[in-house]
Design a protein that fits this description.
With 158 residues, the chain is an all-alpha fold. It contains seven helices and no strands.
């Protein structure tokens, strides 16, 4: 009666207890540390970028307060805002002495467009001589839009 193949001697399989979820395996600690480092680096970069672009936000707020460029006084204010913005972003020796066509060429060169030498931004030069800065439709919206575009999109080398 001691037959090892006898089915009456079978017993249920003993299942081990489930694996605890805490503490995690060392690999998960490494993944968590790497993720935390990546998030810290990204957060630091975002804060630094926001601080670097604070002058852009301030300039855009001033341009929004002016609205449209309808008279020489508002065109002069827009030009002053653009000059202050440029002095913040670029070396003083490069920007401070620029006027007239040189100033407009600088704005075009740093924005990668032709808004100021051939486009609506030429109204800034006309306004400097007391002429209305009309841009074809007479309301100055395009001059203000070109100024906003420059503040948003100018590239700072270095």
């Amino acid at each position: 009666m001691d037959d090892p193949a006898d089915l009456s001697r079978l017993a249920d399989i003993v299942v081990p207890p489930p694996v605890a979820w805490w503490p995690p395996a060392p690999g998960w600690w490494i993944v968590a540390a790497a993720l935390l480092a990546i998030l810290t680096i990204l957060g630091t970069a975002l804060v630094a970028r926001r601080r670097r672009n604070a002058y852009r936000r301030a300039s855009l707020a001033e341009l929004a307060a002016i609205g449209t460029v309808a008279d020489p006084a508002s065109a002069a204010a827009v030009s002053a805002i653009l000059k202050r913005t440029a002095l913040t972003a670029y070396p003083r020796t490069e920007v401070a002495s620029l006027t007239g066509a040189g100033w407009l060429a600088f704005l075009d060169r740093t924005s990668g467009s032709q808004d100021f030498t051939k486009g609506p931004g030429t109204g800034l030069t006309r306004a400097a001589f007391g002429a209305p800065p009309s841009d074809g439709d007479g309301d100055g919206n395009a001059v203000a839009a070109a100024a906003r575009r420059w503040v948003k999109r100018h590239r700072v080398e270095g």
